[in-house]
Amino acid sequence: MSVTAYLCRSALAVTGATALLAGCTFADTTDHDTAVTIMASNTDKAAMTSVIAAFQRHNPDIRIKVSFADINTLQKAIPHKLRTDKAPDIFTVWPGSGNPASVATLERDNLLEELNLRPFSRTVPQGVKPVTDVLGITYVVPMSFSAIGAIYSQRTLDKIGGSAPTTWSELLHLCDTAEQHGKVLFALGNATPWVTQLVAYALVATTVYSDQPDFDEQMALGKQTFAESGWRTALEKYLQMNDRGCFSRQPLDTTYEDAVEQVAEGRAVGMVQVASTLSVLQATAPNLHLRMDALPATDDPGQTRMPGAVSAAYGLNTNTPHREAAMKFIDFLGSLEGQNLYNRTGATIPALPNDSFDVSRVVKEVAERQKAATTVPFMDQRWPNSGVQQTHFEQIEKLFAKKANIDEALKALDLSYQEEN
């Protein structure tokens, strides 16, 4: 057995395996030509590995070949591969319409197989369908309900004598406390473009949607703008946090991987990230004792909202040469076992709710906010097209590089929204 084969098999033998290599082939059989290929995000590696292992136990005759990539690569590579007939059979698809690999964008070009008749489609909640369906037809199997918030290492938090803040003032004070102990509160990897958006989203959930829950509808009708909304307040607070020393010393030179390392090593107390990063941190440093909380943006905890929505989802290539085997895997993803395994490993909540899932204490607040309806959709899921998200990435980078001011950033966002709408 080759070293690669050994590592791949070993990865299946441990919970949250991190030895999984891109391109590993599961079920080492060569006497048939059924090999389902999957392309997924690095942040979902542990979750997908767990599901594949269970699927293989049920279907030992189907080979699974999986590769993982970072989010920026996936959003570029998946649409390109689908258009050149070099795409995997199953791949990550983003809910809604906000980026090049989103449901609405790929469906518009007839690149996604209809999944309306699959068993799982009957269990998709009505509140989820707007970001998984197009014109009433389901095109992806949603896997996890995720959130964006402040992930803290409880161990490091205890070392600095701090506690998770529930108000804006407490948040800034905790930044000072972390600095006094030679740390930063949040590791921020803005050298990785998709990371740039997360702090803004976490703040906008409160500064915009707490008072104006219909903001997206008003934007679509042309009755609201980024510039004349709580987006301005959120960007001001984002930069205030940077000036206060809340983030890594040089965010634009810090990657996502660097940020994870800072938290794992205790140089940062935590990071503002999507819930799936919890599994990455847990696999990197199992003794961190993580927790995830909403990022406060005002001094009234009752106003605080948290971005929460379908996160991971998977689509099926319309031109897959392995339709029957690939559809079996899609069905397994949508099954009770698949949903629970995916989210148990990934520290998220099933997108298809069921009573048998035990919510991890790490994401207890996410589950409570889901039930209390104090979550709001990820902002880009409701934007008219992918151009707005890309503009957002660019403008945050310019703000941190001091190559633009907030007025210019908001004007660029409004222009992009109007052009894409």
Shape: globular
Flag low-confidence runs. 1-32
Number of strands: 15
> What separation lies between the terminal Cα atoms?
54 Å
How much of the polypeptide forms β-strand, as a percent range? 5-15%
The main β sheet shows up as: 7 strands, mixed
Rg from C-alpha positions?
A: 21 Å
Number of helices: 17
Fraction of helical residues: 40-55%
| Arithmetic mean of pLDDT | 89
How is this fold's topology laid out?
Blueprint: H1 3-13, E1 24-26, E2 35-41, H2 45-58, E3 63-69, H3 71-83, E4 90-92, H4 103-108, H5 129-132, E5 133-134, E6 137-138, E7 141-142, E8 144-153, H6 154-159, H7 168-180, E9 184-186, H8 198-207, H9 215-220, H10 230-243, H11 256-264, E10 268-274, H12 277-284, E11 290-293, E12 306-310, E13 313-316, H13 323-333, H14 336-346, E14 349-350, H15 364-372, E15 375-376, H16 386-400, H17 406-420
Parallel strand pairs: 2-3, 2-4, 9-10, 12-15
Antiparallel strand pairs: 1-3, 4-13, 5-6, 7-13, 8-10, 8-11, 8-12, 8-14
